[in-house]
Amino acid sequence: MRRPYAAWLAAAAVLLSACGGLSTSSPVRQGRDLGSVRENQVQVEANPVTPGSSPEQVVSGFIRAAAASDDQYQVARSYLVPAQEGTWRPDSSVVVFTDDSALSITKSSPGSVTAMAKASARIDGDGRYHELPPNSRVQVTFGLQRTPAGEWRISKMPDGFGTWLSESDATRLYDPFDIYYISATERRLVPDVRWFPLGTGLATRLARALLSGVPDYLSGAVRTMVPPGTRLAVDSVPIESGTAQVDLTATRIGSDPNQRQALGAQFLATVSQAPAVSRVALQLEGTDLQIPGTSDPNADSLSALGFPTPTDPVAKPILRRGTTLGNIDPLMLGDPADKPQTQPNRVLPTVAPGWAYLAMSPAGDEIAAVSGDRTQLTRWHGSTQLAVSTLGTQLTRPTFDSQGLLWVGGRAGAASKVWVVNTSADPNDPAKSRPQPVQAGWLADRSIVSLRFAPDGQRVAIISTDRTGQNPHVQVVGVVRQPNGIPLALTEAPLALAPSLTLARDLVWVDDTTLAVLGRKSTSQVVRPWLVPLGGPITAGPEIAGAQMITTVNAERGLVVTTDRGEVLIRAGNRWQGVGQGTDFLVPGR
């Protein structure tokens, strides 16, 4: 998958490998270019209709023909009567079923065939990937009629029927791509994940997705510089010598240089994920649209458009042992020959017994914790403990956003709430420094288990359960802020993820589009990290008995868990390697 704006993640890599450290004896091999899109190199040809096929064979052949590598679906259309050939839209929806053994085709009546399958996911017409709950089943009935030559063809199918693909075919034919928007608080791109078919027309699909506007779950948290109602002036995005020509209808595009740069950045980051695209040229009905920061109409550099590569926090992780906090050098983690040692630092506080679930700000100058009974919140600036706030019950582990604001969830009376602390306010001014509630009405009847911020600070991932601690939800929402950056509310249309997890205990963002969630799918399983993309199948990490909290020092390769036995372990390939004894492992901004 091509993610030009996310390339900075690679530069932050900690020297880890499956054995725990970076080998100095093995040769370095060149891999795929950073940001390159996966090419569909496995070609599958569909079988045309066999003369004399039964209605069941026609339906079965039609479903399988849609998995061919021909993105025009010519063979699949041959299974339809002419009237259906022109109205069938294969990419209007995709049902993903587990494998061919999960698909059954039966004749339900003369001229009628029913297809059933055990489905694992659905991709809607906007490219949104929805994982389905376990044991989900789908059923579709097709009508068939004979041609003048006496052959059966499909004459009727449900409105909105697209294609059914096995999991292996969906992985071969589709890929996830990022659609980029602008943070409402800073010049930073924020991605939303969509799945589109590989092949011709990908650049056009990406441009159209960007033109469709901000998704509901990010409404108010991000913005787009594309004016409402803007469409492609021509029905495609041609690519010439590496330049994607995006010709837009003549809408009221502002002349403000910053807005035009942001518009260029959105299209460059989004459309350049298509193969062979390295530059984007914007036009208004055939007239070049000049973008400040470019020497010609072609945009080819996000930095030149005022969107430099984000930087990682520079503060070192901290390990807590008893009441002592010590710095950990992340480059030493995972090296079995050189166990990391905590390095006492005078600016770190002594954390008295009774304070737990620690978190550290992105700058490393603030540490927060909640009381053992999860009713109070406190924080330290340097070595000085600041005010203690009694908020409610069932407080979550606190977390900091990219602006250094402190967040915590919990219950106040009968309702769940989310609070934020302006850490830049004078701690001696209670009116400005006390925790303030953030509007999140959709969480009121839920119990908040964990919340963590994406690197951009405008998206937050939340685990919640029902009042009994069951029915976990993993959801992502945006943050609506005042012009000064102080939060007002969480957006009201959460993006739901990972419905197959029956237990979700903690989570962390491993990159800008992927979560690692501690959980399990059934009671017979041991808790483990699950990699949960913001659209796409979830994948299991190595089991870890007793895992309670999770963070990372290096994306998914640097996952760190804390167990109920007071162990801190780091991922080393498909196993876990001990870091040391401790109750909390703090990573800046995580």
Number of domains: 3
State the helical fraction: 10-25%
What is the 3D shape?
globular
Rg, nearest Å: 26 Å
- Helix run count: 8
Q: Give the termini separation.
A: 25 Å
Overall structural class, as computed from helix and strand content, comes to: mainly beta
Average residue pLDDT: 87
Query: Strand content of the residues, in percent?
Result: 35-45%
Largest sheet: 6 strands, mixed
Assembly classification: single chain
The count of strands amounts to 40
Uncertain stretches: 1-36, 335-346
Please provide a written account of the structure.
This protein has 590 residues and is mainly β. The protein folds into 3 domains: 166 residues, no CATH class; 119 residues, Nuclear Transport Factor 2, Chain: A; 146 residues, Neuraminidase (6 Propeller). Helix content is 10%, strand content 37%. Strands 1, 2, 3, 4, 5 and 6 form a 6-stranded mixed beta sheet that branches. Strands 10, 11, 12, 13 and 14 form a 5-stranded mixed beta sheet that branches. Helix 6 crosses helix 7. The chain is globular, with a radius of gyration of 26 Å. The N terminus is likely disordered.
